[in-house]
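Lab notebook, bench 4. The sequencing result for the construct came back, and we need a structural model before the next group meeting so we can plan mutations. Quick request posted to the team channel:

Model the 3D structure of this chain.
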Amino acid sequence: MARLALYPGSFDPFTLGHLDIAQRALRLFDAVEIIVAANPEKKASMPADVRAALIQEATADIQKLSVRTFEGLVAAYAEARGATALIRGVRSACDITYEAKMAIANSRLCAELETIFLLTAPAYAHTSSSLVRDIARWGGDLTPFVPPAVAAALRRPYA
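Done. Here's the predicted structure in token form:
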């Protein structure tokens, strides 16, 4: 049976750090599904389906990697998909503190689900989606931070 890992997040926007985590997760699992959260409570810079389409474009050449949107509890979605693990990238101790709470909650909701923490590669350790949105807002060079399709989409509202 194939081992499926889910990589959930808002990906607002999807960064090169996110891409690195997804590619490294593929070394550990048979397949990885990036799942883009559609949360009507949060104001995202782009709708979830647009974010998912940009991720799909950025990862189109990567075998065994898929992209979907979801709404609701990650643990319930994972159980429905037959996933064995959640992938989470962590940059700092603050990330670990937050992610540990989420991992515990998800394991209580779905006992068979493991959360795997991957440390962010040093090249991306200071990259965050909010930093990228600020750089886009002020017309900065996005190429060190996001895939080309994402950079183009982020430039449009500020052109």
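The first helix runs from residue 16 to 25.
Will bring this to the meeting.
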